[in-house]
Fold Cyclohexanone 1,2-monooxygenase.
Amino acid sequence: MSTQSSSPSVDVIVIGAGFGGLYGVHKFANELNMSVLAFEKASGPAGTWHWNRYPGALSDTRSHLYRYSFDKDLLQDSSWENTYLTQPEILAYFEDVVERFDLARHYRFNTEVTSSVYLEDEQLWEVTAGGQIYRARYVFNAVGLLSAVNMPDIAGLDTFEGLVLHTGAWPEGIDLSGKRVGVVGSGSTGTQVVTALGPVVEHLTHFIRTPQYSVPVGKRPVSEAELAEIKANYEQIWEQAKNSSVAFGFEEATTPAMSVSAQERERVFHQAWEEGGGFNFMFGTFGDIATDVAANEAAAAFIRGKIAEIVTDPEKARKLTPHDLYARRPLCDDGFYDTFNRDNVDVVALKETPFQEITPEGVVTADGKLHEVDVLVFATGFDAVDGNYRRMEIRGRGGVSINEHWDGQPSSYLGVTTSKFPNWFMILGPNGPFTNLPPSIETQVEWIAELVAFAEANGITAVEPEEATVEAWTDTCREIAGMTVFTKVDSWIFGANVPGKKPSVLFYLGGLGNYRSILRDVADSGYQGFALARAKDTVLV
Ligand code: FAD
Ligand code: NA7
């Protein structure tokens, strides 16, 4: 029996227009010649870099590695001025990519996908986007791992008479110069926005709940000669990054921190501080900063010393100084601590004086003080990794919803696929790699496209990992995470930043090189661990 449907039908529906979605559309449409329909709720491409237009938004991956590597001409034709890319530069890059690969014709922008439901008998997905129903054999989710914003619920926020902004949904054309601004949150984003706004606003109050360790990013101009050298060596540069652990373009250190003298440790930390880069400081100095508590404390103490050196007001310095482990995504900044030497920039330690309420005029803290502000900026991060999936209605085989399936622990095989959801793929889904992300995204897109091509060539109509395979992968990720210090502090890396969200393992911390060889082995084995179903007699399309 076949069901008739008047819904438009395509081979692949792609959701998202960031690194993952755009490359997915290129693969399926331009390389595999499949029919593709893509949806993006934003008004244009760039994903993260469409939404995060806040002042100071900057990549913390070096410019030459925060881009696609799949196309040699694109690599050779692209250029950049500094060692790191600003948000407008990344946006312009994506606009060029869309034009170059003729991707816009597949997209419906300003169109949110609200549900994806698997029709088991027909082996099709029914996707609702912008209120319309579409059908597809494959759904490719590139909905972003840091994309669903986390907005705190603070008493009285709705009474505030000024402007409320979240950095992850920053409107175009906002000018905060001359305003009194409160910035809540001191992660990567909070440090960037404070550094950029400090010199232009009338007054800035930085509300910090947990101070973090940050090192200089090392943003500096790139000369023509440096650019030419990178372009001449691009093949080796990508080869090294993709076979390394964090894929940030440096060789990860292997020497244990405590195996060298205190002077030598100081020298190595100092050199990394001068070079810049958060991942470089954590993974390029010694091999065990992320795994050994004593090594971790040595790195942390060095950064604490730098904060004391830079911040001249001892009270501000005290409030900015972290004392827990150095065990979150490592931060870097372009002058964050110096910003507090300005008279117009203050810091409030929320653990000492928590929010009491927000009033029409500003923020009242537990000491009864009213911090008057015109604008409240929330740099409070994201419901990371599984957040955007949980905000849609997604139903797989047997009508199971993704929220039921991921009750507590979101699970996947290899971060790209999960059981009970056939032909439904994710980019950077739960338990994907924790790295400089473009090369991990490319790795996943290429692997999924290869799997789809394999299915198409072999008459396989439904692909999903077996439950045991998914469980084993979750166990592997949990085991590796358990070897690190990251599990010992609360952060978005384990979903511990969103009230009510159950902390769980969300990343494969085994490194991109290892991840890529696992993917290669799975493909070479003919996709062992997957259930590969042949056509049913009811199949449409
Ligand atoms: P995204 O770029 O997040 O794109 C997902 C898209 O899906 C979004 O445009 C969203 O609107 C769309 N979408 C989601 N749900 C729906 C729906 N239901 N319907 C329709 N559309 C939907 N990573 C690094 O490696 N290095 C960095 O330096 C770095 N800097 C960062 C700085 C900031 C401020 C942030 C927030 C993240 C940063 N990241 C960085 C992580 C960054 O998210 C990734 O590098 C990369 O951009 C992710 O690409 P993506 O395509 O997977 O997702
Ligand atoms: P993060 O790293 O999750 O940081 C969010 C910050 O907001 C952090 O300092 C939080 O404090 C703070 N926060 C969150 N909720 C509250 C409430 N309710 N009150 C006060 N402070 C709060 O997000 P980012 O956007 O900076 O960075 C996320 C990633 O995106 C980053 O790693 C880059 O890859 C880009 P807490 O630490 O929870 O005490």
